[in-house]
Amino acid sequence: MGDYYRRIRAKAGAAKAVVATARKLAIIYYKMVANKEAFNTKALEDYQQKYKEKKINQLKKKIALLETA
């Protein structure tokens, strides 16, 4: 959740990041209670891995653009 907060804070500012992170926590809590299941850390790890891969691909594209310019 800290990664999510820092990412949103860099884009939109601290106040919006707090609200977005609180909303994300509330949704996770609601789904846990509604479905009567424990927190799935695997899903969070998968999300973080997808984000890292996406960021790497974005940086590779930027490098390619800089090399052609």
The shape is elongated
Low-confidence stretches: none
Class based on secondary structure composition and strand pairing: mainly alpha
**How would a crystallographer describe the biggest sheet?**
none
Q: Name the helix and strand elements from N-terminus to C-terminus, one letter apiece.
A: HHH
Straight-line N-to-C gap: 37 Å
Helical stretch count? 3
Tell me the radius of gyration: 16 Å
What is the percentage of strand-forming residues? under 5%
Average of the residue pLDDT scores:
91
Number of domains: 2
The count of β-strands is 0
Helix content: over 70%
Verbal overview:
By secondary structure, the protein is mainly alpha-helical. The protein folds into two domains: 1-38; 39-69. It has helices at 2-12, 14-35, 41-68. It starts with a helix and ends with a helix.
